[in-house]
Every structure is written in C-alpha cells, then in structure tokens.
Amino acid sequence: QLQASGGGLVQAGGSLRLSCAASGFTLDNYAIGWFRKVPGKEREGVICINSIGVTNYGDDDVKGRFTISRDSAKSTMYLQMNNLKPEDTAVYYCARSPYCIMVDAIYNYWGQGTQVTVSS
C-alpha cells in the first residue's frame, strides 16, 4: 500500500515536499515513481527512482527543480519540489514498479494522490 501526502497551496517560486509512505512491502526492492494528473490531460510521469538509487525524469521541465529520495528506515519516499510554477499544479501520485521507467502501465500499486496547487 502507498499513501501520498504533503500537497497544498503554494505561491510560484515556493517549495513543497511530498511524501509517499509504503506499507506491506520492502520499499528498497522496488522502483517508485511520481506521476501527476491535470483534469483533461493525460497522466504524466515526473520522476522515478529504482532500488539502487538511480533516478529517471519523465519531464525535462522539472530537472533541476524536483528531486526524489528514499528514507528506508521510515519506508517513505520523498519528492522535493523547488521553484514551483503554476504549470506544476496537479494531483500527484506515487506508484510502485519493478523498474524505474516513466510509463504508467508498468506501475502496479498506486497511492491515492495529493493535490498541489501553485498560484501565480
């Protein structure tokens, strides 16, 4: 099971840190990805990290602004989002996969989503 949290309302240029708490499996054995969904648009991959810490970006626009990390002791993944832009506004989901590839079809467990709203 995955539970995402940490969303909220922030001004452009601000920061948020999303959390994805895992239970029922060993977090270190899987890749975890973050995806986001805007109404009327396809869900898009943002970033993922595999079991050995290699990351992959699904959106070049977040490079240099978003980072992903893991706290194995807490079984929690984090998405640190800096210099947020209004176009980052979306519902953010974390998901589990055997591989760190930004294709949502290979992710078989999903968290419930957390809303991020960036005001201009």
Model description:
With 120 residues, the protein is mostly beta strands. 0% of the residues lie in helices and 49% in strands. The protein contains no helices and 11 strands. It has strands at 2-5, 8-11, 16-22, 31-37, 44-49, 55-57, 66-71, 76-81, 90-97, 109-110, 114-119. The strands form 2 sheets. Strands 2, 4, 5, 6, 9, 10 and 11 form a 7-stranded mixed beta sheet that branches. A 4-stranded antiparallel beta sheet has the order 1-3-8-7, with no helix packed on it. Strand 7 (66-71) and strand 8 form a beta hairpin. The termini are far apart. The model has no long low-confidence stretch (mean pLDDT 95).
SSE-based structural type: mainly beta
The main β sheet shows up as: 7 strands, mixed
Rg calculated over all Cα atoms: 13 Å
Principal-axes geometry comes out as globular
First and last CA, distance: 34 Å
Can you count the helices? Answer: 0
Q: In total, how many beta strands?
A: 11
Summed over residues and divided by their number, the pLDDT gives a mean of: 95
Low-confidence stretches: none
- Written as H for each helix and E for each strand, in order along the chain, the element string is EEEEEEEEEEE
Fraction of residues in H or I helices: under 10%
Strand content: over 45%
